[in-house]
User: What shape does this take?
Amino acid sequence: MLKELAYYDGVWGAPEDVMIPFNDRVHFFGDGVYDATAGGNHVVYLLDEHLDRFYTSAKALDIKIPMEKEELGNLLTQLLGQVEGETHFVYWQVTRGAASRNHAYDEDMMGKLWIMIRPAVLNDPDRPIKLTTAEDTRFYHCNIKTLNLIPSVVATQNAKRLGVDETVFHRGDIVTECAHSNVCILKDGVFYSHPNDCYILRGIAKTHLIKACYKLGITVMERPFTLEELFAADEIIVSSSSNFCLHAESINGVKVGGKDPANLKKIQDEVVREYLEYTGKESMFDE
Assistant: This one.
């Protein structure tokens, strides 16, 4: 078994052994889309939902994925079984293809599939996180999970310099999402989430938070919320495909949240329960 696995266009092995052609358009244009999720007990978590989003992103940019969903799902599961450990980060992307550099492309070009799988640790939902804020200057296709992540890279590095965990983007006074997560709030027993529009990625973890709220009888409102509402929230919830329901304790050094631990805990317990049931694991954390 491998400690970490890389795959490119039918060839797989250790990352240092897998070579990428110079003319892959990813090198010149970041021309591709991706998706990612957790793997638990060698099961790809919420596989079908992630594949649906992946194929939707590719279709939005006219990128041709070189295999059908079922075949790709089987490949991801097969490759996950080749990597050491019980909890993994499972990542895959498709680039438009390989060709001499030109902004225009051959519309019949077949995409190049990449996969990366490595051991991972899920963050403890009981550990609060720190946030900072930044103006959202990204483009108007945030709903497509493209490889063009420079604004997120810059924001994440800035968060690291500040000693915090994540950056919350906002357009004017409206909160959109984080650099690599979704952000939602609890206020007066209501769960608020920015609607799935072109300003955010439709987070699958966020979708399952909403499903958890429905199951628990917690009212859900999908509408934009402001920075003022963010700071005044009873709880601030940050979610991604490998961090299902984290909560914030500060933003820009100001203490926030901590006012509705009962509902927060209910939601956390439900999404963790769903993960354990889906993967067959007994605990979020490896021994």
